[in-house]
Amino acid sequence: MSAVPEYFHSVTLERDKCKGCTNCIKGCPTEAIRVRDGKAVIIEERCIDCGECIRVCPNRAKAALTEELKDIARFHHPVALIPPSFYGQFPSQVSPGTIAAALQAIGFHRVLEVGLAAEYVTEAVAGYLEEHPAPRPLISSACPAVVRLIQVRFPSLADLIIRVEAPIEVAAAIARQRGKGDMGVFFISPCPAKVTSIKQPVGRAESGLDGALSMAEVYGQILPILREVEPLPGYPQASHVGTSWGRFGGEREGVSGRSLAVHGIHHVINICELIEQGCLTDYEFIEAQSCPAGCVGGCLTVENPFVAETNLRHTALTYPRGQGHRPKVAGEVLLLTRPITPRKIWQLDDDTTRAMEKLLLLKETEKELPGLDCGSCGSPSCRTLAEDVVRGRATINDCIFNLRERVRRLAEEMVDLAGKVPPAMAGGEGEAIDFE
Hints:
Elements: E1 11-13, H1 23-27, E2 33-36, E3 39-42, H2 52-56, E4 62-64, E5 77-82, H3 84-87, H4 96-105, E6 110-113, H5 114-131, E7 138-139, H6 144-153, H7 167-178, E8 183-189, H8 192-199, E9 211-214, H9 215-222, H10 240-243, E10 259-263, H11 265-276, E11 285-289, H12 305-317, H13 352-367, H14 382-390, H15 400-418
Parallel strand pairs: 5-6, 5-8, 7-11, 8-9, 10-11
Antiparallel strand pairs: 1-4, 2-3
């Protein structure tokens, strides 16, 4: 039996397409990418599969590893889980029933709205906030990229993550509760982080899903047949509250008390820094989504995120304000079963003494660098280059400014040496030779 990899990543690099342009290293929120020998290299333990590198790569060298539509044929009864963000990819005139019918036409046996599960999660989060009066603020666990960001970059905040399941896992439990036989449950994913959360979940032993499909691929399959199908009855299944989860600010609509919603991974980082500094203790709840405008802006979507947000907002307005037609779900399904622990990736050495020595060397190395954070060395900043030097992954001469200065000094030394001759040579002791 092959060993389970310590880290699974849905974000992959196609080396043949990589031009070493360094765009990805500047946008990575966890400094997980380097450029070495003209190609990008992903540091596995730091990657959170947020998809920012996919978003900024001009050469399409980064891609997300997902199942293909043909893979659903492995099961007699494949089930599609539709996230609210998928509805945002279509004009609001395209009804949820039409989209569900089109999904059945391409091979799915049943279709379930994840927004239905989001209603349960909304209630569970409200209950969690009441049962845990301190500390504050508590942070949503719905976005797997944000959860992993905290594990990697803000380990002190791990205990603030709400121990409630993400809607996709609750939706999978509902699907299996309703189905029987050879059933496969597939999520139509707007981002690679959710793919990773299925393959290697955080906070639970294993996922209840069998895989995830790229939203862009599924969109392309059903778009040509939307006018050919009759809308399925019974849709929408969810309410306004659950459907609003697909856009920025939708999750916090179901939470009472003072709350804050932030979207875009770098804005999330700014908010996490404020939380670390103790600046946001007067907030009850933080909705944090790594993609711009929320899940509608994931890098596996097709529509402009702000157009998609508007589409979804208008669609949600047609949904009932109360709860959808919901089956019963056991309370334990709504709670994470394992702690969310930090990743120990920043320590320089397991031995404390050696780690302190390396830290001092890192600081001294950083002083020798220009502090421009230009990325030309293949590391995202001068500090990370200094860290790479200490870890043996780079040399200080990878900095082009240091290299240029060293070449200049060597050239001056060569000129100086060229103007001197040993005393035994013609021209007298210490007398310079005239080369002109």
